[in-house]
Amino acid sequence: MVHSSLLASSPNMVNEQDIVFEKLAPRTVGRKATITKEELFQATLNLIGPQKSIASLSLREIAREAGIAPNSFYRHFKDIDQLAIELIDQAGIVLRQIIREARMQASLEHSIIRSSVEIFTQQLDVDEGYLGLLLREGYTGSASYKAAVERQLNSFEQELQDDLVRMEKLKGHQIARPDLVAKAITQLVFNMRAKVIDLSIEKRTEIAHQTMLMIRMIIVGARHLEES
């Protein structure tokens, strides 16, 4: 849209330009009059797929995918970086909610370890792009994107730490440095998921079992550190 500051000072000319804009806008085929943040997030996820980073997208690509004029993008975000960071935050919130529900349903027979790892594996098959986004931007994104992913991982770690302390108390155990245990488990799970994202379901299941065994080793080791 042409800003009034770029037009001649004549009031009549401004009105003429506004009239022309109002007449032309409805002719733009396929463009939406309004757009939500969620729709822009989804358009971005559609474009990046399993391998592409948000940093490789242009504003025009996102606007085209969302079905809006490029200027409409600025109603919600000042630039692609702001969109990317908010989308990473959204991905973290969605995934934490999924894993939180899995932990709440966990019983002694079906531990929080198994629940968390299995839900991650299942999420790879039904993922709307959120898990892939965190995995990809955490490794290949810009410094600001990596920092945003790191903040989300810190939130995962804090919630896991709280659950570990609670579950260990119920079992009559204590673990040394639950904060480091939670960090080690979170990084292990995300690293393993990054490696299997393109593998078959059978291979994913095999690596999921290996991951659970490694997590148990971490916890058992932490218990012995507390006892020594």
Write structural notes for this entry:
The protein is an all-alpha fold and 228 residues long. It has 2 domains: 66 residues, Arc Repressor Mutant, subunit A, CATH 1.10.10.60; 138 residues, Orthogonal Bundle (Tetracycline Repressor, domain 2), CATH 1.10.357.10. Helix 4 crosses helix 5. The longest helix has 28 residues. It is elongated, with a radius of gyration of 24 Å. The termini are far apart.
List the helices and strands and how they pair.
Layout lengths: L10 H14 L12 H12 L10 H8 L13 H25 L7 H15 L3 H11 L2 H28 L7 H19 L4 H27 L1
Low-confidence runs (pLDDT<50, min 5 residues)?
A: 1-29
Give me the CATH architecture of the largest domain, please.
Orthogonal Bundle
| Number of beta strands | 0
What is the rounded Rg?
24 Å
Name the average pLDDT. 77
